[in-house]
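Annotators were shown the component list below and the corresponding predicted structure, then asked to write short factual statements about the assembly.
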Amino acid sequence: MAKIETLDANLFYGDFHALKNISMQMEENTVTALIGPSGCGKSTYLRLFNRMNDLIDSTRITGQILVDGEDIYRKNINVDELRIKVGMVFQKPNPFPKSIFENVAYGLRVNGEKNKSYIEDKVVQSLKQSALWNEVSDKLTKSAFELSGGQQQRLCIARALAISPSVILMDEPASALDPLSTAKIEELIHELKKEYTIVIVTHNMQQASRVSDYTAFFYLGELVEYGQTVEIFTKPKLKHTENYITGRFG
Amino acid sequence: MTHLDTELIKLKHQLFEMWSLVISQVETSREALMNFDKGAASEIAFKEKMVDTYELKIDRECENIIALYNPVASDLRLTLAILKINTDLERIGDFARGIARFVKKCPKESINPELLKVCQFDDLIKNAIEMLNDAKSSLEHENTRMAVSIFSHDDFLDDVHHNSNKIIANYIKKHPDEIDEALNLHSIIRKVERIGDHCSNIAEEIVFYIEAKVLKHSGKIKTV
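Structure shown to annotators:
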Protein backbone atom coordinates (compact mmCIF):
# COMPACT_ATOMS: atom_id res chain seq x y z
CA MET A 1 0.00 0.00 0.00
CA ALA A 2 1.27 3.46 -0.88
CA LYS A 3 1.95 5.82 2.01
CA ILE A 4 0.28 8.71 0.18
CA GLU A 5 -2.00 8.46 -2.81
CA THR A 6 -4.30 10.66 -4.85
CA LEU A 7 -6.95 9.31 -7.18
CA ASP A 8 -8.34 11.73 -9.76
CA ALA A 9 -7.75 14.64 -7.41
CA ASN A 10 -9.19 17.95 -8.57
CA LEU A 11 -9.02 21.26 -6.79
CA PHE A 12 -10.89 24.45 -7.65
CA TYR A 13 -10.30 27.93 -6.26
CA GLY A 14 -13.76 29.28 -7.11
CA ASP A 15 -13.97 28.88 -10.90
CA PHE A 16 -10.25 28.32 -11.29
CA HIS A 17 -9.37 24.67 -11.88
CA ALA A 18 -6.00 24.48 -10.08
CA LEU A 19 -5.42 20.71 -10.02
CA LYS A 20 -6.71 18.45 -12.77
CA ASN A 21 -7.27 14.73 -12.26
CA ILE A 22 -4.04 14.03 -10.42
CA SER A 23 -3.45 10.36 -9.70
CA MET A 24 -0.18 9.54 -8.01
CA GLN A 25 1.23 7.15 -5.42
CA MET A 26 4.14 7.82 -3.07
CA GLU A 27 5.79 4.96 -1.24
CA GLU A 28 6.87 4.99 2.39
CA ASN A 29 10.41 6.23 3.19
CA THR A 30 10.91 7.91 -0.13
CA VAL A 31 11.50 11.51 -1.13
CA THR A 32 9.29 12.83 -3.91
CA ALA A 33 10.10 16.16 -5.53
CA LEU A 34 7.34 18.22 -7.11
CA ILE A 35 8.68 20.48 -9.84
CA GLY A 36 7.15 22.86 -12.36
CA PRO A 37 6.88 26.56 -13.14
CA SER A 38 5.20 29.01 -10.77
CA GLY A 39 1.45 28.57 -10.69
CA CYS A 40 1.54 24.98 -11.96
CA GLY A 41 -0.18 23.63 -8.83
CA LYS A 42 2.71 21.88 -7.09
CA SER A 43 2.31 23.74 -3.76
CA THR A 44 -1.47 23.36 -3.96
CA TYR A 45 -0.96 19.63 -4.47
CA LEU A 46 1.44 19.47 -1.50
CA ARG A 47 -1.10 21.23 0.73
CA LEU A 48 -3.75 18.64 -0.07
CA PHE A 49 -2.04 16.21 2.31
CA ASN A 50 -2.43 18.23 5.50
CA ARG A 51 -5.61 20.00 4.38
CA MET A 52 -3.94 23.39 4.35
CA ASN A 53 -6.04 24.33 1.32
CA ASP A 54 -9.09 24.21 3.59
CA LEU A 55 -7.94 27.56 4.95
CA ILE A 56 -8.53 29.21 1.57
CA ASP A 57 -12.09 30.35 0.86
CA SER A 58 -14.08 28.90 -2.04
CA THR A 59 -11.83 25.84 -2.34
CA ARG A 60 -13.52 22.75 -3.71
CA ILE A 61 -11.86 19.35 -3.87
CA THR A 62 -12.97 16.18 -5.68
CA GLY A 63 -11.37 12.77 -6.00
CA GLN A 64 -9.65 10.82 -3.25
CA ILE A 65 -6.63 11.83 -1.19
CA LEU A 66 -5.35 8.97 0.91
CA VAL A 67 -2.74 8.82 3.67
CA ASP A 68 -2.04 5.29 4.92
CA GLY A 69 -5.04 4.20 2.87
CA GLU A 70 -7.40 6.53 4.71
CA ASP A 71 -9.40 9.17 2.85
CA ILE A 72 -8.34 12.35 4.64
CA TYR A 73 -11.24 14.37 3.22
CA ARG A 74 -14.00 12.08 4.51
CA LYS A 75 -16.47 13.47 6.99
CA ASN A 76 -15.60 13.37 10.68
CA ILE A 77 -11.84 13.16 10.11
CA ASN A 78 -9.88 14.84 12.89
CA VAL A 79 -7.77 17.44 11.06
CA ASP A 80 -5.58 18.09 14.12
CA GLU A 81 -4.67 14.41 14.24
CA LEU A 82 -3.98 14.47 10.50
CA ARG A 83 -1.59 17.40 10.98
CA ILE A 84 0.25 15.47 13.68
CA LYS A 85 0.76 12.66 11.21
CA VAL A 86 1.60 14.99 8.31
CA GLY A 87 4.05 17.72 9.33
CA MET A 88 5.02 20.69 7.23
CA VAL A 89 8.04 22.94 6.71
CA PHE A 90 7.57 26.20 4.83
CA GLN A 91 9.68 28.26 2.45
CA LYS A 92 10.61 30.93 5.00
CA PRO A 93 11.72 29.79 8.44
CA ASN A 94 8.89 30.70 10.80
CA PRO A 95 10.01 30.12 14.38
CA PHE A 96 7.66 31.30 17.12
CA PRO A 97 8.72 34.23 19.33
CA LYS A 98 9.78 31.80 22.03
CA SER A 99 12.96 30.07 23.17
CA ILE A 100 14.61 27.38 21.08
CA PHE A 101 13.39 24.75 23.55
CA GLU A 102 9.81 26.03 23.59
CA ASN A 103 9.66 26.16 19.79
CA VAL A 104 10.31 22.43 19.61
CA ALA A 105 8.15 21.64 22.65
CA TYR A 106 5.25 23.72 21.34
CA GLY A 107 3.53 21.01 19.31
CA LEU A 108 3.73 18.55 22.19
CA ARG A 109 2.28 21.06 24.66
CA VAL A 110 -0.65 22.11 22.45
CA ASN A 111 -1.44 18.45 21.94
CA GLY A 112 -1.79 18.06 25.71
CA GLU A 113 1.55 16.50 26.63
CA LYS A 114 2.34 17.30 30.27
CA ASN A 115 5.13 14.87 31.10
CA LYS A 116 8.17 17.13 31.57
CA SER A 117 10.88 14.52 31.07
CA TYR A 118 9.11 13.13 27.97
CA ILE A 119 8.99 16.64 26.51
CA GLU A 120 12.68 17.18 27.30
CA ASP A 121 13.68 13.88 25.73
CA LYS A 122 11.61 14.59 22.66
CA VAL A 123 13.08 18.09 22.23
CA VAL A 124 16.64 16.75 22.45
CA GLN A 125 15.84 13.87 20.08
CA SER A 126 14.20 16.19 17.54
CA LEU A 127 17.07 18.68 17.65
CA LYS A 128 19.51 15.82 17.11
CA GLN A 129 17.45 14.44 14.23
CA SER A 130 17.39 17.84 12.59
CA ALA A 131 21.20 18.12 12.94
CA LEU A 132 20.90 21.22 15.13
CA TRP A 133 21.69 19.82 18.59
CA ASN A 134 25.45 20.44 18.47
CA GLU A 135 24.88 24.09 17.59
CA VAL A 136 22.18 24.89 20.18
CA SER A 137 22.63 22.47 23.10
CA ASP A 138 24.10 25.23 25.30
CA LYS A 139 21.54 27.92 24.44
CA LEU A 140 18.17 26.22 24.55
CA THR A 141 16.65 29.08 26.54
CA LYS A 142 17.78 31.71 24.05
CA SER A 143 15.27 33.20 21.61
CA ALA A 144 14.86 31.29 18.36
CA PHE A 145 15.32 34.59 16.54
CA GLU A 146 18.98 34.60 17.58
CA LEU A 147 19.61 31.68 15.22
CA SER A 148 20.74 32.11 11.60
CA GLY A 149 18.26 31.53 8.77
CA GLY A 150 19.58 28.01 8.14
CA GLN A 151 19.45 27.16 11.84
CA GLN A 152 15.91 28.57 12.11
CA GLN A 153 14.81 26.34 9.24
CA ARG A 154 16.31 23.27 10.93
CA LEU A 155 14.57 24.37 14.13
CA CYS A 156 11.28 24.37 12.20
CA ILE A 157 12.09 20.86 10.99
CA ALA A 158 12.81 19.84 14.62
CA ARG A 159 9.46 21.35 15.61
CA ALA A 160 7.73 19.29 12.94
CA LEU A 161 9.56 16.11 14.02
CA ALA A 162 8.78 16.55 17.74
CA ILE A 163 5.15 15.50 17.32
CA SER A 164 6.23 12.27 15.58
CA PRO A 165 4.75 12.65 12.12
CA SER A 166 5.23 9.96 9.50
CA VAL A 167 5.02 12.31 6.52
CA ILE A 168 6.86 15.62 6.13
CA LEU A 169 5.80 18.14 3.52
CA MET A 170 8.41 20.70 2.53
CA ASP A 171 7.51 23.74 0.49
CA GLU A 172 10.77 25.09 -0.96
CA PRO A 173 12.54 24.57 2.37
CA ALA A 174 15.93 25.83 1.22
CA SER A 175 15.02 28.60 -1.21
CA ALA A 176 15.78 31.35 1.33
CA LEU A 177 19.04 29.79 2.54
CA ASP A 178 22.71 30.15 1.63
CA PRO A 179 24.52 27.21 -0.05
CA LEU A 180 25.96 25.81 3.21
CA SER A 181 22.61 25.85 4.98
CA THR A 182 21.00 24.39 1.85
CA ALA A 183 23.53 21.54 1.87
CA LYS A 184 22.70 20.84 5.53
CA ILE A 185 18.97 20.73 4.79
CA GLU A 186 19.56 18.39 1.84
CA GLU A 187 21.76 16.12 3.95
CA LEU A 188 19.04 16.14 6.57
CA ILE A 189 16.37 15.15 4.04
CA HIS A 190 18.57 12.23 3.05
CA GLU A 191 18.80 11.12 6.69
CA LEU A 192 15.13 11.73 7.51
CA LYS A 193 13.80 9.57 4.70
CA LYS A 194 14.95 6.49 6.63
CA GLU A 195 12.08 7.20 9.05
CA TYR A 196 9.73 9.53 7.21
CA THR A 197 8.04 9.91 3.87
CA ILE A 198 8.98 13.28 2.41
CA VAL A 199 7.33 15.35 -0.30
CA ILE A 200 9.24 18.45 -1.34
CA VAL A 201 8.34 21.32 -3.63
CA THR A 202 11.38 22.93 -5.20
CA HIS A 203 12.22 25.31 -8.00
CA ASN A 204 15.81 24.16 -7.92
CA MET A 205 16.28 21.39 -10.50
CA GLN A 206 19.63 20.31 -9.08
CA GLN A 207 18.12 20.10 -5.63
CA ALA A 208 15.29 17.93 -6.94
CA SER A 209 17.78 15.62 -8.64
CA ARG A 210 20.05 15.48 -5.59
CA VAL A 211 17.52 14.80 -2.85
CA SER A 212 14.62 12.91 -4.36
CA ASP A 213 13.91 9.32 -5.34
CA TYR A 214 10.92 10.26 -7.47
CA THR A 215 10.08 13.44 -9.36
CA ALA A 216 6.73 14.73 -10.54
CA PHE A 217 6.54 17.47 -13.15
CA PHE A 218 3.42 19.65 -12.99
CA TYR A 219 2.23 22.11 -15.61
CA LEU A 220 -0.96 24.18 -15.60
CA GLY A 221 -2.49 22.03 -12.89
CA GLU A 222 -1.75 18.75 -14.64
CA LEU A 223 0.70 16.03 -13.74
CA VAL A 224 2.77 15.80 -16.91
CA GLU A 225 5.29 13.12 -15.94
CA TYR A 226 6.06 11.19 -12.78
CA GLY A 227 8.83 8.68 -12.37
CA GLN A 228 12.15 7.80 -10.81
CA THR A 229 14.30 10.91 -10.50
CA VAL A 230 17.22 9.27 -12.29
CA GLU A 231 14.98 8.53 -15.28
CA ILE A 232 13.37 11.99 -15.33
CA PHE A 233 16.78 13.69 -15.31
CA THR A 234 18.54 11.43 -17.79
CA LYS A 235 15.87 10.26 -20.22
CA PRO A 236 12.47 11.80 -19.59
CA LYS A 237 9.69 10.17 -21.58
CA LEU A 238 8.08 13.41 -22.70
CA LYS A 239 9.58 16.29 -24.67
CA HIS A 240 7.65 18.70 -22.45
CA THR A 241 9.49 17.42 -19.35
CA GLU A 242 12.81 17.51 -21.18
CA ASN A 243 12.22 21.13 -22.21
CA TYR A 244 11.45 22.11 -18.63
CA ILE A 245 14.37 20.39 -16.93
CA THR A 246 16.85 21.58 -19.55
CA GLY A 247 15.61 25.17 -19.23
CA ARG A 248 14.14 25.41 -22.74
CA PHE A 249 10.66 25.92 -21.47
CA GLY A 250 8.26 27.97 -23.60
CA MET B 1 18.56 29.78 -27.06
CA THR B 2 20.00 29.14 -23.60
CA HIS B 3 23.58 29.86 -22.59
CA LEU B 4 24.11 26.10 -22.38
CA ASP B 5 22.85 25.73 -25.97
CA THR B 6 25.50 28.21 -27.11
CA GLU B 7 28.22 26.31 -25.23
CA LEU B 8 27.10 22.96 -26.65
CA ILE B 9 27.07 24.35 -30.21
CA LYS B 10 30.63 25.63 -29.68
CA LEU B 11 31.67 22.25 -28.27
CA LYS B 12 30.16 20.37 -31.22
CA HIS B 13 31.87 22.77 -33.63
CA GLN B 14 35.27 22.04 -32.02
CA LEU B 15 34.60 18.30 -32.17
CA PHE B 16 33.72 18.47 -35.88
CA GLU B 17 36.92 20.42 -36.58
CA MET B 18 38.94 17.75 -34.77
CA TRP B 19 36.99 15.06 -36.59
CA SER B 20 37.81 16.53 -40.03
CA LEU B 21 41.44 16.66 -39.03
CA VAL B 22 41.42 13.00 -37.99
CA ILE B 23 39.68 11.98 -41.24
CA SER B 24 42.38 13.77 -43.20
CA GLN B 25 45.04 12.02 -41.06
CA VAL B 26 43.64 8.59 -41.96
CA GLU B 27 43.26 9.56 -45.64
CA THR B 28 46.84 10.80 -45.69
CA SER B 29 48.07 7.62 -43.99
CA ARG B 30 46.41 5.64 -46.80
CA GLU B 31 48.16 7.76 -49.45
CA ALA B 32 51.44 7.50 -47.55
CA LEU B 33 51.29 3.71 -47.45
CA MET B 34 49.87 3.07 -50.92
CA ASN B 35 52.38 5.45 -52.58
CA PHE B 36 55.14 5.13 -49.98
CA ASP B 37 55.06 8.90 -49.69
CA LYS B 38 57.34 9.92 -46.81
CA GLY B 39 56.30 13.59 -47.17
CA ALA B 40 52.68 12.66 -46.52
CA ALA B 41 53.84 10.66 -43.51
CA SER B 42 55.53 13.77 -42.07
CA GLU B 43 52.31 15.74 -42.55
CA ILE B 44 50.47 13.29 -40.26
CA ALA B 45 52.95 13.85 -37.44
CA PHE B 46 52.27 17.60 -37.65
CA LYS B 47 48.50 17.08 -37.65
CA GLU B 48 48.74 14.80 -34.63
CA LYS B 49 49.90 17.71 -32.48
CA MET B 50 46.81 19.65 -33.55
CA VAL B 51 44.58 16.67 -32.74
CA ASP B 52 46.14 16.37 -29.29
CA THR B 53 45.49 20.07 -28.68
CA TYR B 54 41.85 19.63 -29.67
CA GLU B 55 41.55 16.61 -27.36
CA LEU B 56 42.74 18.59 -24.34
CA LYS B 57 40.55 21.56 -25.23
CA ILE B 58 37.40 19.46 -25.69
CA ASP B 59 38.07 17.55 -22.44
CA ARG B 60 38.36 20.85 -20.60
CA GLU B 61 35.22 22.28 -22.26
CA CYS B 62 33.20 19.18 -21.27
CA GLU B 63 34.44 19.47 -17.69
CA ASN B 64 33.50 23.17 -17.63
CA ILE B 65 30.02 22.51 -19.03
CA ILE B 66 29.32 19.81 -16.43
CA ALA B 67 30.64 21.97 -13.60
CA LEU B 68 29.05 25.26 -14.64
CA TYR B 69 25.79 24.34 -16.34
CA ASN B 70 24.77 21.03 -14.70
CA PRO B 71 23.41 19.59 -17.96
CA VAL B 72 20.64 16.98 -17.72
CA ALA B 73 18.83 14.62 -20.11
CA SER B 74 19.86 15.11 -23.78
CA ASP B 75 22.29 17.91 -22.86
CA LEU B 76 24.07 15.60 -20.42
CA ARG B 77 24.06 12.73 -22.92
CA LEU B 78 25.55 14.97 -25.61
CA THR B 79 28.29 16.19 -23.28
CA LEU B 80 29.15 12.64 -22.19
CA ALA B 81 29.02 11.37 -25.79
CA ILE B 82 31.39 14.14 -26.95
CA LEU B 83 33.76 13.38 -24.07
CA LYS B 84 34.00 9.76 -25.22
CA ILE B 85 34.05 10.47 -28.97
CA ASN B 86 36.92 12.88 -28.28
CA THR B 87 38.97 10.01 -26.81
CA ASP B 88 38.06 7.69 -29.70
CA LEU B 89 39.10 10.28 -32.28
CA GLU B 90 42.43 10.88 -30.57
CA ARG B 91 43.12 7.14 -30.58
CA ILE B 92 42.25 6.96 -34.30
CA GLY B 93 44.73 9.78 -34.87
CA ASP B 94 47.36 7.71 -33.05
CA PHE B 95 46.75 4.75 -35.36
CA ALA B 96 47.18 6.99 -38.43
CA ARG B 97 50.41 8.23 -36.88
CA GLY B 98 51.53 4.63 -36.39
CA ILE B 99 51.02 3.89 -40.08
CA ALA B 100 52.93 7.06 -41.01
CA ARG B 101 55.79 6.13 -38.70
CA PHE B 102 56.17 2.78 -40.47
CA VAL B 103 56.29 4.48 -43.89
CA LYS B 104 58.91 6.97 -42.67
CA LYS B 105 61.16 4.37 -41.10
CA CYS B 106 60.83 1.63 -43.71
CA PRO B 107 64.04 1.34 -45.74
CA LYS B 108 62.18 -0.06 -48.75
CA GLU B 109 60.37 1.96 -51.41
CA SER B 110 57.08 0.03 -51.28
CA ILE B 111 55.22 -2.91 -49.83
CA ASN B 112 54.65 -5.75 -52.26
CA PRO B 113 51.53 -4.51 -54.17
CA GLU B 114 50.34 -8.08 -54.68
CA LEU B 115 50.37 -8.70 -50.92
CA LEU B 116 48.45 -5.45 -50.32
CA LYS B 117 45.91 -6.55 -52.91
CA VAL B 118 45.29 -10.04 -51.55
CA CYS B 119 44.99 -8.62 -48.07
CA GLN B 120 42.35 -6.15 -49.44
CA PHE B 121 44.26 -3.38 -47.70
CA ASP B 122 42.91 -0.55 -49.83
CA ASP B 123 39.30 -1.70 -49.38
CA LEU B 124 39.97 -2.01 -45.67
CA ILE B 125 41.26 1.50 -45.14
CA LYS B 126 38.71 3.04 -47.53
CA ASN B 127 35.96 1.42 -45.44
CA ALA B 128 37.50 2.80 -42.27
CA ILE B 129 37.53 6.29 -43.80
CA GLU B 130 33.90 5.88 -44.89
CA MET B 131 32.97 4.82 -41.35
CA LEU B 132 34.60 7.93 -39.94
CA ASN B 133 32.79 10.15 -42.46
CA ASP B 134 29.44 8.43 -41.87
CA ALA B 135 29.81 8.74 -38.11
CA LYS B 136 30.50 12.45 -38.46
CA SER B 137 27.49 12.93 -40.76
CA SER B 138 25.24 10.93 -38.46
CA LEU B 139 26.05 13.24 -35.55
CA GLU B 140 25.78 16.36 -37.72
CA HIS B 141 22.31 15.30 -38.90
CA GLU B 142 21.39 13.44 -35.68
CA ASN B 143 20.64 10.37 -37.81
CA THR B 144 20.77 7.17 -35.77
CA ARG B 145 20.01 4.95 -38.77
CA MET B 146 23.22 6.13 -40.41
CA ALA B 147 25.08 5.59 -37.13
CA VAL B 148 23.84 2.00 -36.87
CA SER B 149 24.90 1.26 -40.49
CA ILE B 150 28.49 1.72 -39.30
CA PHE B 151 28.36 -1.61 -37.45
CA SER B 152 28.12 -3.58 -40.71
CA HIS B 153 31.25 -1.81 -42.03
CA ASP B 154 33.00 -2.88 -38.85
CA ASP B 155 32.07 -6.50 -39.56
CA PHE B 156 33.79 -6.17 -42.95
CA LEU B 157 36.93 -4.78 -41.29
CA ASP B 158 36.93 -7.65 -38.78
CA ASP B 159 36.65 -10.20 -41.62
CA VAL B 160 39.50 -8.65 -43.61
CA HIS B 161 41.68 -8.58 -40.51
CA HIS B 162 40.84 -12.18 -39.72
CA ASN B 163 41.58 -13.36 -43.28
CA SER B 164 44.84 -11.45 -43.40
CA ASN B 165 46.26 -13.60 -40.58
CA LYS B 166 46.34 -16.67 -42.81
CA ILE B 167 47.40 -14.79 -45.94
CA ILE B 168 50.35 -13.19 -44.20
CA ALA B 169 51.36 -16.43 -42.47
CA ASN B 170 51.48 -18.17 -45.87
CA TYR B 171 53.37 -15.23 -47.39
CA ILE B 172 56.01 -15.46 -44.68
CA LYS B 173 56.43 -19.17 -45.34
CA LYS B 174 56.97 -18.51 -49.04
CA HIS B 175 59.10 -15.36 -48.59
CA PRO B 176 61.04 -15.78 -45.35
CA ASP B 177 63.36 -12.95 -46.34
CA GLU B 178 60.39 -10.52 -46.26
CA ILE B 179 59.24 -11.42 -42.77
CA ASP B 180 59.68 -7.87 -41.40
CA GLU B 181 57.66 -6.30 -44.19
CA ALA B 182 54.89 -8.88 -43.82
CA LEU B 183 54.70 -8.52 -40.05
CA ASN B 184 54.61 -4.73 -40.35
CA LEU B 185 51.74 -4.99 -42.80
CA HIS B 186 49.93 -7.28 -40.38
CA SER B 187 50.39 -4.71 -37.64
CA ILE B 188 49.07 -1.97 -39.94
CA ILE B 189 46.00 -4.03 -40.84
CA ARG B 190 45.41 -4.49 -37.12
CA LYS B 191 45.62 -0.71 -36.63
CA VAL B 192 43.02 -0.10 -39.33
CA GLU B 193 40.78 -2.76 -37.80
CA ARG B 194 41.07 -0.91 -34.45
CA ILE B 195 40.07 2.32 -36.24
CA GLY B 196 36.87 0.48 -37.18
CA ASP B 197 36.31 -0.54 -33.55
CA HIS B 198 36.62 3.07 -32.44
CA CYS B 199 34.17 4.15 -35.17
CA SER B 200 31.71 1.57 -33.79
CA ASN B 201 32.19 3.03 -30.31
CA ILE B 202 31.48 6.47 -31.73
CA ALA B 203 28.31 5.16 -33.40
CA GLU B 204 27.20 3.72 -30.04
CA GLU B 205 27.76 7.10 -28.39
CA ILE B 206 25.72 8.85 -31.07
CA VAL B 207 22.80 6.46 -30.52
CA PHE B 208 23.15 6.98 -26.75
CA TYR B 209 22.95 10.73 -27.21
CA ILE B 210 20.01 10.77 -29.60
CA GLU B 211 17.91 7.80 -28.45
CA ALA B 212 19.12 7.37 -24.83
CA LYS B 213 19.79 3.71 -25.71
CA VAL B 214 22.90 1.84 -24.62
CA LEU B 215 24.16 -0.46 -27.41
CA LYS B 216 27.51 -1.16 -25.77
CA HIS B 217 28.06 -4.87 -25.12
CA SER B 218 24.82 -5.76 -26.90
CA GLY B 219 26.62 -8.10 -29.32
CA LYS B 220 25.43 -8.15 -32.89
CA ILE B 221 21.88 -7.04 -32.06
CA LYS B 222 22.40 -3.36 -32.55
CA THR B 223 19.26 -1.61 -33.72
CA VAL B 224 17.42 1.60 -32.90
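Statements collected:
1. DSSP finds seven helices and no strands in chain B.
2. The domain at 3-211 of chain B is CATH 1.20.58.220 (Methane Monooxygenase Hydroxylase; Chain G, domain 1).
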